[in-house]
Design brief:
α4 runs antiparallel to α5. The N and C termini lie far apart (67 Å). The chain has 135 residues and is mainly alpha-helical. The chain contains five helices and no strands. The chain has one domain.
Length: 135
Amino acid sequence: MSKYKSSNLTSLLNEKYLGEEEKPQISKEQKKAFMEAVSNYHTYGESIYRNESLREITEKIHEVVKIAENLTLQESEHWFDNMTVSRHMKQLGEAYKVFEKTSKEVTALQQRMESAYEDIGSVLNKYYKVNEALK
């Protein structure tokens, strides 16, 4: 066998494969804490999933903004000059547009996070006992 082939084979035999690297030992306390955390994995879902959707909240805030614009302009005719009130209501509308855009972005990220959470739980459940959420 040539020297070149021999060195290639030696390097292949010396490769570390997944899981072969030396890893620090896990203590009994760490293992117990890990097993408890895995068994209670479903409780993290309470923080991940929202009870009321962001879309519903955004619609409620939109209604508040619309009514505030109309009512404030109507009620403040004699108290403030209309230019100041109009400027403030325009500012309110612009802030709502930013809120609505951000809400849509957060909703997309929320769905991605929920999917990743479920994927993690699915893989953990293949190797460890993950308790189900009580319904």
